[in-house]
């Protein structure tokens, strides 16, 4: 690699915390790493690492970092998180016997170094591409991925399952869970830790980089920072270590045991010790001279308690542009390795997320009851823009969607107007709260559901496929879907004005279609759709096809109508706007005046089309017209570009044309 490339091949030269565990303090510094030929070329699986010296493991880590940077530069993807765990991942595979020892990553977006070391380095150019490697851990992809993860805070629960199964089967393997400090803001992590008692084969590694995607929030983040920075803790330990250097060996060993109790009383690891874990740390996660022996000690431990190793890392470590902008280089487009400059594309229109934020800001200027809530995704939901205007009315609750929804319910019960902005795929995590705390009490919480429909490179774990189905079955809920950016403005305004119960509106990822936007959104009539296109025919003549679109497929419906008209078909295209309540008058009109009715949506089976069928069946109208529902297929679709995903799903204009012609023949 050219010298100008800003990759630090020896990132362990600067320690992160001033404190490391007692095990690490007795180690000598390793000699400077060799400049020998590539070690990575010789590593096909972690088994090939077992013969490496510690110096060679350090060299290998540098080569893994370089491999990862070059791969992500070609494809785009998650960068900063993986760079931060290069040394940690390399050390784990060098010390433990994977895949027999189970390595479970939380979230999974930091798994790129893991993939490089587990037989997939030759396919890294395909990561997050159609037919390529997943950007997360995936059981179907490799035996080294024992548990798939793309959502947060699942690793300890899964790890306890693996560890318990091993105990019941009489196995002697270890289970290693790597969880980020941001993921520790979710209650599920603590539910798991509360049930980890006496699992001596369980090792939890808390990767503390003081940042998940956005900077972490909440008491746990402050607690971890306090452990690392406490003067009392650091001063007492340093003074004690210097004094012990002059003491005989028996006294030194006794002092080490006493130090464990002392550090608990001084604040280091108290919480984790009380949860039943043996706490080690903080440890510099980039210094293999410290990390390797600690992991070996944990591997060989014969204690009765699970172990928690608190590792301090730096997001983007070893690559200067990523170190300088850890938020902007968390997830990246293709980029220039030398400069870190990401590929730029000229947007045709503002993103739906930005349109939502701008309209919400406009509404909030007129109504001081409007409050914005996000669950650790301020940039992704547009709440960062809202927060710049109204910091006192903006709340980032961390990776805690359940809390976000019930928090919003409490605000609504006191007369506020909370907008809970959560991705469709993440709102699933708070379903009971939506049911029990919002809908049963009929509280006017407003749900802004970003990333509705298929989302491209993140694949099935992040697709917004199910929200229409899982919200539409709930009493009191109003559901809307935006067909373009002007309609999104209208739906934000409608939600702000609606106080009779919960209301949700969904919108896709990416750019709008580029229409001219009004200055402000218009408050819609609840449950009323609109006709957007009709073929001119004789007034008394029954038309061929009605296409009733819910959400972002409206433009494809209009393209299909144009194609059908060239084939002599008469077509009406309607934008439903609402899935609940349905515009039954509109549906009545369409089945009365058309031979065929086609519904189309960017959601799963059981959603809008099912609601229309249920209405037609209950009103004895199924015989009036041929009815066909078009929705996402009943499978979890892998990653690809959104356009190709929708082609695969059969939800583009060509598919609508084919379905229409089949029904009218």
The CATH superfamily label of the largest domain reads Thiamin diphosphate (ThDP)-binding fold, Pyr/PP domains
Shape: elongated
**Which CATH architecture of the largest domain would you pick?**
3-Layer(aba) Sandwich
Give the N-terminus to C-terminus distance in angstroms: 63 Å
- Counting structural domains, the number is 4
Largest sheet: 7 strands, mixed
Mean pLDDT: 86
* CATH class designation of the largest domain: Alpha Beta
As a percent range, the share of strand residues is: 5-15%
Q: Total number of β-strand segments?
A: 19
List the uncertain runs: 1-6, 12-35, 227-244, 250-254, 256-267
Largest sheet strand order = 9-8-10-11-13-12-17
User: Compute the gyration radius: what is it?
Assistant: 28 Å
The total count of helices amounts to 26
Describe the fold and architecture.
The chain is of the alpha/beta class. It folds into 4 domains: 35-220 and 271-328, 3-Layer(aba) Sandwich (Rossmann fold), CATH 3.40.50; 231-266; 352-506, Thiamin diphosphate (ThDP)-binding fold, Pyr/PP domains (Rossmann fold, 3-Layer(aba) Sandwich); 530-664, Rossmann fold (3-Layer(aba) Sandwich). The protein is built from 26 helices and 19 strands. The strands form 4 sheets. A 7-stranded mixed sheet has the order 9-8-10-11-13-12-17, sandwiched between helices. Strands 2-3-4-6-5 form a 5-stranded parallel sheet, with helices on both faces. Strand 15 (543-550), helix 22 (554-566) and strand 16 (571-575) form a beta-alpha-beta unit. Helix 4 (86-95) runs parallel beside helix 12, helix 6 (155-168) runs parallel beside helix 7 (187-193) and helix 14 packs parallel to helix 21 (485-497). It is elongated, with a radius of gyration of 28 Å. It starts with 21 loop residues before the first helix and ends with a helix.
